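Notes from hallway chat w/ T.B., transcribed later so I don't forget. T.B. wanted the structure written out for a chain they're using in a teaching module, and asked if we could keep both sequence and structure tokens in one place. Agreed to drop them here.
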Amino acid sequence: MAEDDGTAALDPTDPDAIAAAPPGKVLDAKTWFQVGEHEGKWSEYDDRGVPAKNLKKKKPTKKEKEVLEAEYLDASKAYQKYMKDVEAWEQSKLDSEKALKKSDRLRWSFRQVGQKHDPIEPDEMETIIKFMGWKSLGLKEFKVIKKGLTEIANESGQIDLESLRVYVREVMPIQLLQERLSTDRLDTIELEDLYSPRSWRKKLEEDPPPSKKKKSPRAGGGTSDRGGGGGGGGGTSARGSAKKGAKKDDGKAATSPRGNSAPSPRGGKAKKKPGKVSAEK
């Protein structure tokens, strides 16, 4: 019973499944008469590889030559078909790798480092980060990642794909966030590290900040020294109160303090108002 190499359960379009199923080997027509049932029968061959002389240095008979030519033609056709199958197989491997880059970027990146399936060294994580298309990390951030990788490494200090997958998905984001939010990093956080300027403008258009309006000092309801109410208040000015009191409650005009006939405190008769000269004088 053949040993299971782990590719039986893979999707037929998976790169490993395709690589494990190359076209069946076919001999080149030039070597066809040198192996198998023809091995040891012929001593010389023509430019195509067709036998020209047997071990006794004799040329094939006419009948033997017809058989050899027909056999050569079949071998040549089979080999040409095999070469086309190999070309299609190689292309399918390339296509499957491209598809893997879209469907499983981490696995694709892992396969670009080393021998595709072999565990990687912690230092090779920097290359994987580039293949993943992630933003370049700072020296401190990469030290954090390298330390985290050493914690999940095997006895040889290497990391396999599945262990790396768990680390990248569950552990690495938390470690990087803690590093970026540490005290010595707060002053170096740039807004453009979170969103591009274009994204920030879009967010401000969708949810603009509340506008701050300054209150005019005249808009209040305080009492002015002169007018009490200012521009919109209900206070009464000193002059305004005198005007309101100019009429009595019964609607009659109030008497002016200068219009009465009381004697002047300085004595003498009240001065008469200048008028027209009487006709009798």
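Follow-up for T.B.: The chain is about 40% helix and 5% strand. Might be a good example for the class.
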